[in-house]
Amino acid sequence: MNASTAYEQVSPAVPSWLNKGDNAWQMTASTLVALQSMPGLVILYASIVKKKWAVNSAFMALYAFAAVLICWVLLGYRMAFGDELLPFWGKGAPALGQKYLLTRARVPESTHTLEDGTRETVEPWYPMASLVYFQFTFAAITLILLAGSVLGRMNIKAWMAFVPLWLIFSYTVGAFSLWGGGFLYHWGVIDYSGGYVIHLSSGIAGLTAAYWVGPRLKSDRERFPPNNVLLMLAGAGLLWMGWSGFNGGAPYAANIDASIAVLNTNVCAATSLLVWTSLDVVYFGKPSVIGAVQGMMTGLVCITPGAGLVQSWAAIVMGILSGSIPWVSMMILHKKSALLQKVDDTLGVFHTHAVAGLLGGLLTGLLAEPELCDLILPVNTRGAFYGGSGGVQFLKQVVAALFVIGWNVVSTTIILLFIRLFIPLRMPEEQLAIGDDAVHGEEAYALWGDGEKYDPTRHGRNTLYGEETAQSPYVNGARGVTINL
To answer: What is the rounded average pLDDT of the residues 46-54?
Structure first.
């Protein structure tokens, strides 16, 4: 027996069930997903909005990240992944005890197929602490994505109350039902890494919240240019690169399914970006960097529910559809829909997350490949494209989507109406007119002298040598919505 073997047998820091490689990858994936929110979406939100809302938008994301973590370890994690209370909800309890966090991670019963064709039950080879933090990063980014629908007018105090309430009464329900051992999980619905739990939920809840909070000022809706396009790209880049942890960490192991998930994620995102950009060129005559980021986002969202379950040629097909169908819903149907015109979804979260997430969930029901499903899913599963019981799987995906949509509309509505009894959901008109300086007493950029007032004759934003410069159609609203991510 060598020294290292003896150490592993006697040291409590290296129990016999711990796989250091799996644990290292899970913590790495957790960090990648956390970086998508903090600083990824903080930077993206701060730069993609009008200058006067940069601080407020960044702060909403920053606050949500911190508030969700504390609520998660106090109550939320075990409501989403603990013992069953109801078929769609777990028993809430703290996830803070040392004995709990240092024990081997528990997940709903899962099996995979061995080379000889037999199936065995598998569990993660790392402690609960790794799993609790990994799942927190998903909960946090869901709230931050939802925030994109209400930027530029939601009362910050109402947002501070909304975050913990929505986490507890909406997010945990979807997470337990689909991931934590709830009725949709046991029914065999597929949501590999959050197409429904995260993206469909945030898109539908965001649209609902935008309806109840009300619109931005008319001047903000008509003209809402990003204050820093290059910084916006930095935030978008963190999102894209972080998505390898988002989908690569879903198998709870550094296994071959994680590898295919990472490859498919990037293939789909790249395809979607190219398709969206091509449609912009064909329809509007010029490419847009904001449009390219939108295409990237819809591709990442669409592949998420099936990243480790579809073949790579299918990831290209999903990228083609995610770069075109949400483009049509945003650029064409948005203009023709009275409801979408009425509801002020600031960053178009409905299109980029609800539409793309629903599309991905349905396409997974069509394209999930049986052998890949056997690597990770608890029951024999296949998409409709592969015959057999695939048609039933597609119908399950439809039913699950309807449940997620219905629950988020109802729960978000009740939460906001409750908050409205005590706190106005919308900022006062004077704060809406001024922005960050009135809401926080802070401004994002010192572009002119301290205390100097904005003078359009001296500080014109869109002039070059005295002549107005052309703007992207995404900026001036000609494409149906202002900025959408």
So the answer is: 94
CA dihedral 82, 88, 91, 93 (to 10 degrees): 70
Rounded CA-CA distance 46/215 in Å is 19
For residue 476, pLDDT over 90 is answered with: no
- The domains found in the chain, sorted by start residue, are 40-111+118-420 (1.10.3430.10)
Residue 388 has a pLDDT of 81
Phi-psi region at 285: left, alpha or beta (left = phi > 0; alpha = psi -120 to 50):
left
Task: Tell me the backbone φ, ψ of residue 463, rounded to 5 degrees.
Answer: -120, 145
Q: What are phi and psi of 258, to 5 degrees?
A: -60, -40
Rounded Cα–Cα distance for residues 171 and 68 (Å): 11
Q: What is the C-alpha separation between 366 and 398, in angstroms, rounded?
A: 11
Tell me 463's DSSP state.
E
Residue 355 to residues 53, 360, 481, 483: CA-CA distances in angstroms? 26, 9, 15, 16
Prediction pTM value: 0.88
- Which of 323, 317, 405, 298 is closest to 364 using CA atoms? 317
Confidence band of 464 (pLDDT split at 50, 70, 90)? very low
Are 42 and 217 in contact, with CB atoms under 8 Å apart? no
208 and 162 in contact (C-beta within 8 Å)?
Answer: no
pLDDT at 120: 54
Continuous segment of H or E residues that includes residue 433: helix 429-434
CA–CA distance, 374 with 425 (Å, rounded to integer) = 47
| Cα atoms in the Cβ-side hemisphere of radius 13 Å centred on 162 | 32
Q: Which residues contact 138 (CB under 8 A, 6 or more apart)?
A: 33, 175, 194, 197, 198, 246
CB 241 within 8 A of CB 388: no
Tell me which of 272-276, 339-343, 481-485 is least confident.
Answer: 481-485
Q: How far is CA 411 from CA 31, 93, 220, 352, 403, in A?
A: 30, 21, 29, 21, 12
Indicate the residue type of 298: T
Taking the C-alpha atoms of residue 8 and residue 222, their distance in angstroms, rounded to an integer, is: 64
Dihedral sign for Cα atoms in the order 52, 58, 59, 61: positive
Residue ranges in 285-355 assigned as alpha helix (H):
289-303, 312-322, 325-328, 334-336, 338-342, 349
Q: How far apart are the first and last CA of the chain?
A: 57
User: pLDDT tens digits, residue range 119-176?
Assistant: 555 689 999 999 999 999 999 999 999 999 999 999 999 999 999 999 999 999 999 9
- What residues does 110 pair with on adjacent strands? 122
Q: What are phi and psi of 196, to 5 degrees?
A: -95, -50
| Residue 39: cis peptide before it, omega within 30 degrees of 0 | yes
